[in-house]
Amino acid sequence: MLVFDSVSYTYPGAPSPALCDVSIAVARGRRVCLLGPNGSGKSTLALLANGLLLPAAGAVSVEGISTAERDPARRRALRQLCGIVSQDPDSQIVATSVFDEVAFGPQNLRLAPDDIRARVADALAAVGLVGKEQRDPNTLSGGEKQRLVIAGVLAMRPSYVVFDEPTAMLDARGRAEVLTAMSDLVRDGAGVLHVTHSLDEAFDADELVVLDDGGVVFAGGPDDFMRSPRLVARFAVEAPVRSPLAPTRSAAASASASSARPGAQARLGAQARLGSQARLGSQAALVLEQASYAYDADAGCKHPALGAVDLCVRPGSTTLVVGHTGSGKSTLLRVAAGLLAPTEGAAYVTDAEGFSATASAAASSPSNSPSSTTTTTTSSSSSSSSSSSDYLSPLP
To answer: Would you say the pTM of this structure is higher than 0.90?
Structure first.
């Protein structure tokens, strides 16, 4: 089991403990969800799980091995038994290709090359990254990086996995893939400690633990938690879609309308009229004309991220960019801001007199109250990759 036994921890210089006398047990084949407000100690508990932090009091153990173990061989065994997926994927990525990133752990286990390839293929399939084996991780979207880190942990095939809000950067499809991967882990006998803010994600958990101010305030089934309006209200947890306590859309809309301050609708209408006048009387705009961008273009191995995008954003308007993880949203924003130069087409800003400047000038342009909304939808670009057997790094 993964056991936290009366664990306390205080960060150096902190006036109060991050965790105080916390006891939790995660058995193999079970998923325990950990909820709580920001600053309640959830991430600290995750870092204690395999010795990245050591408790100031109490003990943490994995299958009987203490995280304070000093013997190098037992510490390596501990790391293999329990994997962690952190909130920040960039802090866990170490390799220069997707394949090598996922293979890094199995290589350090000194597995046979064929076994490494099999593990990498299974892990990438579990998180929906098949076909991106040769990509530089730095060219992936934020959501793809998160899935890459999860794949790296899955390839180690640990007995326990701690997920620290792994779906925070993912869209609905990516979130479903990660939750499916969790379910597969539990089905195959692994224990999962899942830190999340979403009760929807916690509904299928075997146990729900709620932290507040570093201590456990609830431990039990998700249904038991939802049957207590006091607990739901106290921790400001939104009633999930699947809960019978969740309000309908019409009820929520009525509540929102009834709580609106007098005159709010009139002010919004005035803002809309002012925005329309601003757009009609000004030629200022942020413009993308047939803008395309491909990562690694200079290296001769193009990975298209944007393809011939036309976009015009005028003062007083709001543009909503929508698309799946990896569809090019972040790349579009970087091109628009001048952080990336389009490999084809153009991106620029014009002022009211018709003078143009580079897109980076958009970052310093004053913003007006949003009055109209445009939605731009991006779609994934396809890229080809060769077989993973062509670029398996040699074992150390």
So the answer is: no
